[in-house]
Amino acid sequence: MPRRLDRLRPEDLAVDALIAARRLLGCLLVRDDVVLRITEVEAYRWPDDTANHCRMGRTPRNEPMWGPAGRAYVYRCYGIHAMLNVVTGGVGEGAAVLIRGADVLAGEDIVLARRGGKLDLAGPGKVGAALDLHPAWSHHDLGEAGGLELRPGPAPARVLAGPRVGIDYASPDDRAAPWRLACADSRQVSQRRALRDVD
User: Fold this and answer.
1) 9 pLDDT band (50/70/90 cuts)?
2) Does residue 126 contact residue 36 with C-beta atoms inside 8 Å?
3) By CB neighbour count within 10 A (0-12 exposed, 13-18 middle, 19+ buried), where does 40 fall?
4) pTM as predicted
């Protein structure tokens, strides 16, 4: 069995998605020679979040979101962009945190090749492209060595919060909820003007 001491434990993520989202800021995503620092996230909570993919119940698409925590949920947006989510909460609770932005810490040449010469990773599709992800990564255990790994990293000194992006179908309260979090010290944050310092 691979050692897990340098990785996040599943119990660290088996909490409400908003708590897990805060914990994920500053953490590292590692795939082979590419290392990314998570700079922006969105929480999709259980059970009353009308923006959550699981709001209508279990489907083949959202199956990974039902647990266990610490697994990947990767889906295609508009049939093009691979969107990486980290599953949170207890087994049977459909919740996850969308990874919206990241800084490149290692593997710049690989990211440049995958992103058409760009290192900008402000946007979830850009993160998925940088890691060369696709929906077959769903259910992958992010705490195990090899493949795609999620590792602890220094927490940001300042956190920003604001409404999530692209959820016009959700209720007004859920559209306005400040469940998008970001590292204040990073440029890899989308729609920054809508974010405010967390008290």
Assistant:
1) confident
2) no
3) buried
4) 0.94
